[in-house]
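Why show two proteins at once? Because comparison is the fastest way to build intuition. When a single record is shown, students tend to memorize it. When two are placed side by side, the eye starts asking what differs. So, the first record is below.
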Amino acid sequence: MTYPGTLSLSRAHLTHLADLLRGHRARIGSRWRKLTPGRQALLVLAHLRNGDTYTRLAAGFEIGLATVYRYVREATDLLAARAPSLTAALWRLAGNGHRLGILDGTLVPIDWLGGEANRLYYSGKHHRHGVNLQGLVDPRRGDLVWISDGLPGSTHDLTAARTHAVITTAQRADLELLADKGYQGAGGTLVVPHKGRKLTKAQKAHNRMVNSVRGPGERGFATLKAWRILTKVRCCPQRVGTLAKAILTLELGPES
């Protein structure tokens, strides 16, 4: 049986993705598909926003499982390719009036994995398997402006930031980044709170400043995780970064 459902998204999201798919089909010379660009866009948004499985989508749109897989992969790859690069995001932050950004990390839960990958993707900090993502947030409005590729969940946030060259690139751009205590010792232009119980008044004031400005960083990732596909990803862990970038492109809109 099938039943109608809803998506908590604006028509602009559907139009944006449908236009991308329409242009892509024209470029590759695709003459016929089982679904129109608009219907394919709706299928992909249902998967990303509501977390609908391939099986449910195949039944609802009356197409095969393999077709759903191809449609979702095609659309997410198109969207992810349009996500802002680290350099572009830093340029945006450099022009926000105070040359300041927020660096934060998050763990996207995944299914249990067998073999060596099971240990590699297990996060001791969060006590679950997942993929580490790093992100940059504009403190003015709390908008997420960049998301990294995924790394195994056992990767420390500081190691992940260094792997993606976030710290060195921000330093070259003369851009300050505020982060939490997990990035202690990063150096460069990264600003973190002081550790310890016996802090001076100046150190306590510094911590209050950093924590108050870092508040929007949490909201940035909350927006990303409003897309239920990231509640627990059941596809290949190496696709998590692509999914996150695709969602970021949709959140930023056509101007991205």
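Second record. Ask yourself what differs from the first in the token line.
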Amino acid sequence: MNRRQMLRAALAPALVVGFGTACSEPQPAGGTDVVDPGAAPATPAPSPTPSQPAAPLTGLPVSAAPVATRQALAVPIRVTPSTAPAGLGSADLVYVEFAESDSLHLTAVFQSRDATKIGPVTEIRPVDFRSAGVLRPFVGYDGGPTGFLSQFEKSGLAGITPADDGDKVFASDYTSTAALWKAAPKGGQPPTPVLDYATAGAALAGRDLVPARELTVAVSGGPPMVWRYDEQKSVWVGKVGTATVTAASVIVLTMEYRTLDVRNPSPRSLPSATVFGEGAVLAVSGPSSARGTWRKPGQQLVCNVADLGGDLLHPQPGNAWVIYAPTSAKVTVK
């Protein structure tokens, strides 16, 4: 099932109707009515069960129908080993770039759930609009190098910074989904689904499926990122900064990194993931893992993740973390 078929199927209400029958012979007056023992007694048909449409970025039913059609929000977040990030538990998608000085640059995308506190909000970087541009989000960010700001303006995405908002959207280094949706221009479009979520009982991949309990992404010069499967809760559990985070699926895309030299407002060199292109994939979802390939030709195109036979992977519905691993990283699953 492709993404369009999946979304159309999720939007159709499911009607569950039960039927019961009883058979008996006409009996003379005063006789005993003998019921066929093989027939079930008649029962009233249950009322139709209402269903909500699926959220485009998780494949799960939304809390209320209008939620499925609202615009996505994207917020860049800087995380160091000592940072306690807020709001990640409500994000539908989180993209992870390995940044400088053992830090992570996260692009957290919100659409189906609310978060009262998100942050610490950091500067815009190319990875933010290159990853999330296809989702058409409204972006809350904290400035950035002039070259990055120019690229963001050319991306066609709208956004807001602390310098713009007059303390209405940001409080110190934090914001919220309510404040960002209130600041967003009217007429924002819902995001394009980016993953082909599994239907009930479907496997992550049609081939080369391997049981998985632990996923590790080890990058030179920094602590490894480790995810472990919680079988009782059916989620993958990891640690980002000092926060424990969970995901229905973790998808590791291996790619080249390059160094970007920026001058304004301060000279520095920054690592940057090469989001456009193709490479290897290692994905975990449920108690399984699968290897494959990824391909993203450009900003306005979805990043397709496929198994080694070329068929799309089918992660379990729920939130997903997409990790951009440098080619030098060691990615293992056991």
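One difference worth noting in the second protein: The longest strand covers residues 277-285.
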